[in-house]
Design goal:
Structural class: alpha+beta
Order of helices and strands: HHEEH
Strand order of the largest sheet: 1-2
Shape: globular
Strand content: 15-25%
Number of strands: 2
Number of helices: 3
Mean pLDDT: 88
Radius of gyration: 14 Å
Low-confidence stretches: none
Length: 71
């Protein structure tokens, strides 16, 4: 949830406080070898993935997200 809200705010052009940016642990850009495998509405656009810690410095990650990216 932390990473999703941070990426959404950056995407929307919102100002993000330094304290939130400091909790960003990793930022990745996903690229497809074959863009035709992407959904039509995102084809050709960059896809960013992030991992953030909470304000109390905890990392929350659901194990299923590592395997199949389930919500």
């Amino acid at each position: 949830a932390e990473a999703s809200t941070l990426l959404n705010d950056l995407y929307e052009g919102e100002d993000v406080e330094d304290a939130r940016m400091e909790r960003l642990l990793s930022l990745f850009r996903l690229e497809f070898k074959d863009p035709n495998q992407m959904a039509a509405d995102v084809r050709g656009k960059p896809i960013y993935l992030a991992l953030c810690m909470t304000p109390d410095q905890r990392v929350r990650l659901k194990p299923q997200n590592l395997l199949v990216n389930l919500p």
